[in-house]
Amino acid sequence: MGTILIIDDDSTIQDVAEAILKRNGHSILKALDTLQAERYLASTAIDLILLDIVLPGQGGLEYLMDIRNRYPNTSVIVMSGKVRTDLLPVKKLAQQFGAACILSKPFTAEELSDAVNGALKNSCH
Questions:
Q1: Beta partners for residue 3, in sequence order
Q2: Are residues 40 and 29 in contact, defined by beta-carbon separation less than 8 angstroms?
Q3: Cα-based distances in Å from 11 to 39, 55, 87
Q4: Do residues 41 and 56 lie in contact, with contact meaning Cβ atoms separated by under 8 Å?
Q5: Average of pLDDT values for 97-117?
Q6: How far, in Å, CA of 32 to CA of 52, rounded?
Q7: Nearest CA-CA partner of 104 in 114, 30, 25, 21
Q8: In 3D, which of 74, 61, 5 has the Cα closest to residue 37?
Q9: What is the per-residue pLDDT for 94?
Q10: What confidence category does residue 125 fall into, taking pLDDT thresholds of 50, 70 and 90?
Q11: 84: number of Cβ within 10 Å
Q12: What is the per-residue pLDDT across 30-84, written as a single tens digit (0 to 9) for each?
C-alpha cells in the first residue's frame, strides 16, 4: 500500500480518513497546514496527498500548483466541504490544477477508499 499525507485544517476529518485508510493498509501522515506538509514532503516519500481546498494561509489550489511543479509524480486528491465539488466547473478547475480526483466532505469510507485506490492507479473518475 502507499504512504498518504492528509493536509486538512480539520483534525476530525484527518482522524476519520486516517482510520479508514489505515484499515486498508496505508501509512498515514497528517498536516494541519501547508507549512507542516512541507516538512513531510521534504523528508518522506509520499505516494498520495489528500488536500483540502480551503486552508489557512496558502490555499489548497495554490498549493496544488506548487506540488505539481515540485513533486510531479505524487498523486493529489483535492477535497472540500465548503466548495461544491460536484459542479463540473470545480472539477475541471481542480483537474487543470493537477488533481487526480476530487472528493466532497463529508465522505463515506467507500468514497474515500475508491478515490484513493483510483488515484494510486491513475484511474480516478
A1: 27
A2: yes
A3: 18, 12, 26
A4: no
A5: 88
A6: 10
A7: 114
A8: 5
A9: 64
A10: low
A11: 11
A12: 999 999 999 999 999 999 999 998 888 887 888 998 998 999 999 999 988 755 5
Scan for cell 510531479, then name that residue: 72
Q: Characterize 33-64 residue by residue with b for buried, 16 or more Cβ atoms within 10 angstroms of its Cβ, and e for exposed.
A: bbeebeebbeeeebbbbbbbbebeeeebbebb
- Is 70 exceeded by the pLDDT of residue 92? no
Distance between CA atoms of residues 86 and 72, nearest Å: 25
Residue 24 has φ and ψ, to the nearest 5°, of -90, 5
pLDDT 10s digits, 6-26 = 999 999 999 999 999 999 999
Classify burial at 68, counting beta carbons within 10 Å of its beta carbon; exposed 0-12, middle 13-18, buried 19 or more: middle
111 in helix, strand or coil?
Answer: helix
* Size of the chain, expressed as the number of residues it contains: 125
Q: Tell me how far apart the alpha carbons of residues 81 and 89 are, in angstroms, rounded to a whole number.
A: 16
